[in-house]
Amino acid sequence: MEGPETEPLTASTGSIQGNSHAKIAAAQELFPEEDDEDILLQAVVFVEDAIHYRSIHHRVDRRSLRLYRLYYSNWVQWGMYAAISVLLVLAFFERPSSLSYTSDTQTLFINRNGTNQTNQWDPPCGVTESIELFCLLIFLADFVVKTYLVGKEKFLKSPWLIAYVLILLVSLLDWMATLGVLCIVPVPGTSHYRSVLRIRRFFRPFFLLQNSSLMKKTVNCIKRTLPEIFAVLVLQFLHVYFFTIVGMLLFSEPVGSTAGGNNSSWVPVDPGATGVSDPNFHSLWNAFITLLVLLTTANNPDVTMTAYSHNRLYAVYFILFLAIGLYLLFNMMTAVIYNQFRGYLQSSLQGSFFRRRVAVRAAFEVLSQQNKEVELSTNSGGDCVRVSTIYHVIEKVSLPKSAERRITEKLGRDMFGTYNAAQFQAVFDLLDLDYQVHHRPPLPAFRHSWLQFLQKMIAHRYFEYLCCAVALSNILTVSILLTIEYDQLNATNSDLELLNFVFVVYYLVEQCLKFVLLGWRYYRIRKTYIFDALVTFGLVIVEVMTLVEYGSPFSGLDRKDEVETVIELWDLIRITNILIMFRLLRVISLFKTMSLVLSTLLDLIKNMRAFAGILVVIYYFFAILGIEIFSGVTNYETFRTVNVTCGSYQQLNYWANNFNDFASALVVLWDVMVVNNWMVFLFAYKDALSTGWAQLFFIVWWLVSVVVYVNCFIALVLENFITKWDKSNAIKEEQEDEGRSRTLSFTEVRVESVHHLFRSGLTEPKEEELLEEIRKHQHLEIKV
């Protein structure tokens, strides 16, 4: 949104109009900086602590505060994340390396032709270890600085800092221990060295966790939710176990005979027999795993067919099992996780909100101490701070631009005044503003009546409906032509090429009319207009390339074979129609629910850093664990003849799905997380290691990734959507009560962070609590 025009500041009016930078400059001119530098620096740091929900309990002398600001500067923090990213990415390059064109062990075995050579490239010995040591030393320096800033007492009270130093020590010791044997034991017949167990790789995700306060809060909330999850899981376990025993009793009576005594080949006999023998229920463990997989519907209806084919009444058993386990207990678990996780997260964010309030109040207290020397006071006799002093603080603080603009606009109305604690707090409440009102700029004025009529027509909402109708008709005609004339689409005079040309010309004319008649200021605040302009620009470029390469689509001649072209006509047609499909998204803006769903999705992408980080952590840990347990056990040359059946790992050619390197391990974990056909991995790795305990790895992964993580993510999605929906309705009702015209302004609801999701449910701390927390500060010497 374009800011208001800047006008000169006059001392007589005492008001400032203009953008934030002009206001700050004017404040400096009117009020030369006479504030104590140390006091200002303390206030600046406390305000920055409030912005980022940080604790104020750190050293406050000038040297420490400068180090503190340097430590939390953007480039240092980005450097930390870069070091963490490099350390995590090393897993793709370390032995066993993921640098190969495929992970398919069958393809690799065939291509080797018995030479025992692989396409895998391992970095020179010691390269990745040197990079890892450099990253660990950066983390060690980070720990030293962080511990110095918070002090010894705070360090001893922080479990995360204690864990930080312990994991650093273990990682460095493990690095030194494995370095001595890393390049000693070669793989026979190759130039590679055997991989050794590196315990420190399991701890790498911790460095990502400890560097994000929101991620740590989320982990703590998940940990506190686990008891309630465990209670429902126990109920689910009893449900599966009950049906396991019932299934073994129902499906244990044989109705046929075996050929040659071989139980693996079943020959059914009398159809009128009273029982059925289902091999899935011949052992307790196998029956339990079968029903557990059925609970995810991955093996439905395959696992039911043996019994159901014998007697249709057996379907009741499986229907009851899924109805209770899948539709009742699983949905109950989702409800429990949503309720408990949301409650714990809100409680945790209440602590963050309290820290923000404490930090703002601490900034006010240190500034008011300075003002006491010149005996400034409000009408009520309380402590206060000059507005000019707040300007000096705002100038030095790293604020988001939108928040800086709102704050300086508020301060500009009270240039010569003073603020008490409540007013000071109200200034920084603007940081929590989760919506923004966009005032529509006036339309350009035209003298000619026909231009005024055309402008009025294009600005009307019915014109937007017409544009969407044209886009829909474009999509429908493209779909019809793709269906009935697919084989003729590569000709230069095809109907699809003609259709594309006509619609692209229409889109270009539409955008030009909007831009000229509505004006740039009006045009730029409509996101749908900008989106349409970008898509139309791409369409015009592709259509111009088509005209240059193949000539006019109205020529009636097929010139495809007569000219030398740089790009194929079909490629141009495909690009054009893909861009046309994107224009269909503009329809979303016409439907409130669709628009709200899309905006919720965009907000989730912005606010998913904590959840995405936790997903990286669990994927990384389980991938490393899977490599250590299952690396090489499903290689083609050794596993191709082991228990091959219909639907098995070998029969489905799952050879690329293995734990032979980090990248392929991530893919296997994703496949299991999706749960489709995950029973193939359960039984394949059980056969490979000849033990049912191997299946526990995949069961635990399913519980962690699907049952816990996905349900917590669902809770975040629900909360985000409900918050935006309620806020949108509340703002709409408020505007209707005020009689504000939708043509003059529109309100954009924003969810800038997870904190904004729960802002309405957070309670304001009492003033006594804020002052008590400030008094506990070991390094702050002020009277409150």
TrEMBL record:
<feature type="transmembrane region" description="Helical">
    <location>
        <begin position="498"/>
        <end position="517"/>
    </location>
</feature>
<feature type="transmembrane region" description="Helical">
    <location>
        <begin position="313"/>
        <end position="338"/>
    </location>
</feature>
<protein>
    <submittedName>
        <fullName>Two pore calcium channel protein 2-like isoform X1</fullName>
    </submittedName>
</protein>
<dbReference type="InterPro" id="IPR027359">
    <property type="entry name" value="Volt_channel_dom_sf"/>
</dbReference>
<dbReference type="GO" id="GO:0005765">
    <property type="term" value="C:lysosomal membrane"/>
</dbReference>
<feature type="domain" description="Ion transport">
    <location>
        <begin position="122"/>
        <end position="341"/>
    </location>
</feature>
<keyword id="KW-0472">Membrane</keyword>
<dbReference type="GO" id="GO:0019722">
    <property type="term" value="P:calcium-mediated signaling"/>
</dbReference>
<dbReference type="GO" id="GO:0015280">
    <property type="term" value="F:ligand-gated sodium channel activity"/>
</dbReference>
<dbReference type="InterPro" id="IPR028798">
    <property type="entry name" value="TPC2"/>
</dbReference>
<feature type="transmembrane region" description="Helical">
    <location>
        <begin position="161"/>
        <end position="187"/>
    </location>
</feature>
<dbReference type="Pfam" id="PF00520">
    <property type="entry name" value="Ion_trans"/>
</dbReference>
<feature type="domain" description="Ion transport">
    <location>
        <begin position="460"/>
        <end position="721"/>
    </location>
</feature>
<feature type="transmembrane region" description="Helical">
    <location>
        <begin position="229"/>
        <end position="251"/>
    </location>
</feature>
<keyword id="KW-1133">Transmembrane helix</keyword>
<feature type="transmembrane region" description="Helical">
    <location>
        <begin position="462"/>
        <end position="486"/>
    </location>
</feature>
<feature type="transmembrane region" description="Helical">
    <location>
        <begin position="610"/>
        <end position="630"/>
    </location>
</feature>
<dbReference type="GO" id="GO:0022832">
    <property type="term" value="F:voltage-gated channel activity"/>
</dbReference>
<feature type="transmembrane region" description="Helical">
    <location>
        <begin position="662"/>
        <end position="684"/>
    </location>
</feature>
<dbReference type="GO" id="GO:0075509">
    <property type="term" value="P:endocytosis involved in viral entry into host cell"/>
</dbReference>
<feature type="transmembrane region" description="Helical">
    <location>
        <begin position="696"/>
        <end position="718"/>
    </location>
</feature>
<dbReference type="GO" id="GO:0097682">
    <property type="term" value="F:intracellularly phosphatidylinositol-3,5-bisphosphate-gated monatomic cation channel activity"/>
</dbReference>
<keyword id="KW-0812">Transmembrane</keyword>
<feature type="transmembrane region" description="Helical">
    <location>
        <begin position="72"/>
        <end position="93"/>
    </location>
</feature>
<feature type="transmembrane region" description="Helical">
    <location>
        <begin position="529"/>
        <end position="548"/>
    </location>
</feature>
<dbReference type="InterPro" id="IPR005821">
    <property type="entry name" value="Ion_trans_dom"/>
</dbReference>
